[in-house]
Amino acid sequence: MDTAINYADKHVFVAGGSSGINLGIAMGFAAAGAHVGILSRSQEKIDAAVAEIEPIGTGRAAGFSADVRDPEKVEVALRGAFDAFGPIDVLVSGAAGNFPALAKDLSPNGFKAVVDIDLLGTFNVLRTGLEFLRKPGASIINISAPQALNPTVAQIHVCAAKAGVDMVTRVLAMEWGELGIRVNSIVPGPISETEGMRRLAPTPDALATVGRNVPLGRLGKIEEIAAAALLLSSPQAAYITGAVIPVDGGWSLGGDRVAMAAILAQLAKAPR
Ligand code: NAP
Ligand code: COA
């Protein structure tokens, strides 16, 4: 069995790949030799990310500006990547939005904004991406969140959206299995130095409370999520599909939810 993880000349496309965990995933695949396409809204962030990705490996990098809520723009981006690098071997859907808000204070449009980015956006990326995927052989990875598994105070919008994302994973694993396409979710735990944690645990005290409640006793690293994505898209994972896989130091098993709820409820009351 060949156990080396090598993505030389493979095409990896990461929706939401201009920062944080998704950029780390893009960089991980680039280091393993892949050509990498990324998509997000901000051209400035895209340009900076492409400049960071390109020198890493032997592959090339390209960036596309699109909002995942706009399927026509998403199609233009995916077609551009397909024209540049050929069929997509790995498609990652990780664009997301988050802010703490108690349900009673959340407007319908606030709820909709997050569901539209995370859930409808994932549908748009995958549904549009189908035409451009390598068939058979492609791996799709949806980036979920612990809120999909555990009801979380001040996160009703994210809980609903990410639980939906995991159902998209499972349904498409069933529908697209016959095309030789695998579909899985990675559920990152709390990951240090990310926008998500800046929004949900913005103080040293809040970060310490989170760390204490991870069974492995620390926050995760972006590279640890990238490593899981590389493994999950490799031939070693050829029989894994429809799986929702926590990469979280055990965070989703439990912990002191009351302490976390108190932090989030307090944050949600703070002025924006
Ligand atoms: P981040 O740096 O803010 O990443 C979000 C990415 O999505 C950015 O590249 C952003 O770029 C893009 N994006 C946002 N809205 C978009 C839209 N409407 N259309 C296209 N692109 C859009 O946050 P992160 O904390 O690394 O989170 C990355 C992923 O991991 C998310 O799916 C998140 O739910 C998940 N996650 C994070 C954690 C954590 O600890 N941070 C834990 C569990 C799960 P633009 O602003 O340029 O659009
Ligand atoms: N609390 C309550 N409601 C909020 C809010 C907050 N902190 N931030 C935004 N909203 C509401 C807005 O008031 C608006 O509702 P309204 O029209 O009824 O007033 C709605 O959400 C949409 O806001 P808008 O700023 O127009 O959305 P957008 O599409 O420009 O941005 C967000 C989407 C709000 C998710 C924005 O935070 C974002 O772009 N996030 C991406 C980065 C991120 O969240 N990273 C972490 C990933 S885990």
In short:
The chain has 272 residues and is α/β, with parallel strands linked by helices. It has one domain (11-269): Rossmann fold.
Radius of gyration (CA) equals 18 Å
Query: Major sheet: size, sense and barrel closure?
Result: 7 strands, parallel
Mean pLDDT: 96
Sequence stretches where pLDDT stays below 50 over 5 or more residues: none
How many domains in all? 1
Q: Can you tell me about this structure?
A:
With 272 residues, the chain is an alpha/beta fold. The chain has a single domain (11-269), classed as 3-Layer(aba) Sandwich (Rossmann fold), CATH 3.40.50.720. The protein is built from 9 helices and 7 strands, in the order βαβαβαβαβαβαααβα. It has helices spanning 20-31, 43-53, 71-85, 108-129, 156-176, 195-200, 204-212, 222-232, 257-269, and strands at 11-15, 35-40, 61-65, 90-93, 139-143, 182-188, 244-247. The longest helix is centred in the middle third of the chain and has 22 residues, at 108-129. NADP nicotinamide-adenine-dinucleotide phosphate binds next to α1, α4 and α6.
Features:
272 residues; alpha/beta; Rossmann fold; 7 strands; 13% strand; globular; binds NADP nicotinamide-adenine-dinucleotide phosphate; binds coenzyme A
